[in-house]
Each structure stands twice: as structure tokens, then as C-alpha cells.
Amino acid sequence: MLAALVYGLAFAGNPIQKDIVYRNIGGNQVMADFYAPELHNPKGDPFVIVVHGGAWTGGKRQEMAILCEALAKAGIASATVDYRLAPQSKWPAQIDDCQAAVRYFRANAAKFGLDTTKMGAAGASAGGHLSLLLGFTDTRDAKDPDNPGQSSRVQYVLNLFGPTDLSKDFDPNVAALVSLQVTGQKYDPASESVKSLSPINYVDGKSAEVFTIHGLADTLVPPKQAQRLDEALAAAKVFHETRLIPGMKHEFNPGIPEFMKSVEDGIRFLSERLKTTSGKFEIARTG
């Protein structure tokens, strides 16, 4: 009987589906890789969008495979997604693509065997920033033709050292360069463009619950950014947890035990919220 039950939960299809075109826009095919969970829920697998970093100008979806593999072990389906990059594609192309990815997987939930009633997002650096926007806002462009009947909003976010308030704390030279590349405008902390880029400005009582991990030695995205988000979510009475890791820089470093434990706790946060079938997993470690 037990064997039959395990067989019924086991995912029989391809656990990884690569190069899924989730959006065609401006001559660009924007792709995702889908990771099925190790245990399949016949009522629909919980699902998380995973977003790479790279200052909105670089990076690629394959860099987040380690996180997708850990989610699969926890019983969570995921898709690591690309998005159009600056400076070729200026903001808000990046958030528009990520929102389109959420809508694509909601529209194709039956095809991938998903329960997308509630969803999560997880990302590092710029990917953390984009994940937070997925949790704090819905579709930015009401005229976007891709699956317009679906919501772009997620309910839970695992934020790995993402920028939260672009108007404060950053090295002015770095901020100036990033602003020109990403928005095409000179950096002005009081500008509407900087305000619209900052997830903290969208926090309210309906915001997604957030689990944040940030290094105290991060000089690129200062740890004060995590503290500012923590304070904003507390003021809005939204559940959140913040882990500040001593000695950790702007990095996903498997060699820091406290960081890896926090990532596992962050995945457990997603697992508990999304009610997965398995709670046993471990992040792959190197060395």
C-alpha cells in the first residue's frame, strides 16, 4: 500500500524542461527552464518563479539552477526565467517580462501540473528586487497582450540581498552608472523613476510575505536595504523574516554555513506557506 502511494506521488514526466519560450516580444524569445518536484502532488504542485541577478544588465537563468533543484527536493515546482536586459532593453522591460512569466505559468497550470492559486517568487540581487515587485504589485501594463486574464502577483517571496529602496544607501557612482544603463536617465534619488523602481514604495497590507537574507559585509547592496524593507513590512503588519549574515558579501556562497542554513529555512518558509508534500531537502554544497 505504501509503495503504491509513493508511486502515485512520484513525478513520472521529465523533471526538467529547458528553453520554454514564455514570451515573444520585440523580436526576442524570452525563455524559462521548468523544474518539476521530486514528489508530484496530484492536486497540483506548488510553484515558485526564480529570478536571476546581474544588475538588470547581465546574468542568465541557468545560474539559479541550484535553487530550483533545492525547491524540487522540497516538493516545489519552479521555473528559472530570463528577462530582457539593459541597456538594450530599458526599464520597465525587466519587470514586464517577469510578470509575463507569472501569467504564463498561471495560464498553463494544467499543462505543467501546477496549483497556482498562490505562488512564490525567489531571486538574488536584481532577481530579489524583481521578486519583491512581483509580490508587491500586479500587472504594470494593462495593455500587455500576454495572458491578460491572469494575475501577475505572487503571495510569498524569498529575497536574497535584493535592492529595496533605490533612493538611499548606494554608492553615488554605482547608482549613477546603473541608472543610465537601466533607465537611460541620470540618477536622481528624488525622481519618479527611482521611486517607481523601489519595491519599498509599494508595501501595504496586501503585500506578499517575505523572507530576506542579506550579508552584513555587502558593499554593493548595503544591508541597510534589508533593514528598511523589514521596517516597512512591520509597519504594514505583513509577515516577514530577515536574516543578516555576518561576514557575507554580495554573494551566494555555499561556504558560509549560516547563509546555507538561512536559505534552507527560506525554502522551508515557502514550503510551509505553499503546503508542499515533502519537507525534507538539503541545498547542494560544494567543497
Write the layout of secondary structure elements.
Elements: H1 2-9, E1 16-25, E2 28-35, E3 47-51, H2 65-73, E4 77-81, H3 93-107, H4 109-112, E5 120-124, H5 126-136, E6 156-160, H6 172-182, H7 192-197, E7 209-215, H8 224-235, E8 240-245, H9 257-274
Parallel strand pairs: 3-4, 3-5, 5-6, 6-7, 7-8
Antiparallel strand pairs: 1-2, 2-4
Helix pairs in contact: 3-5
Structure explained in plain terms:
Mean pLDDT is 91; it is low at 1-12. The chain has 287 residues and is an alpha/beta fold. Helices cover 33% and strands 18% of the residues. It has an eight-stranded mixed β-sheet, with helices on both faces. β1 and β2 form a beta hairpin.
Helix amount? 25-40%
Report mean pLDDT, rounded to a whole number.
91
- Biggest beta sheet summary: 8 strands, mixed
Strand content: 15-25%
Cα distance, first to last residue? 40 Å
Number of DSSP helical runs? 9
Secondary-structure element sequence?
Answer: HEEEHEHHEHEHHEHEH
Q: Which secondary-structure class do the elements indicate?
A: alpha/beta
Number of strands: 8
Low-confidence stretches: 1-12
Q: Sum up the overall morphology in one term.
A: globular
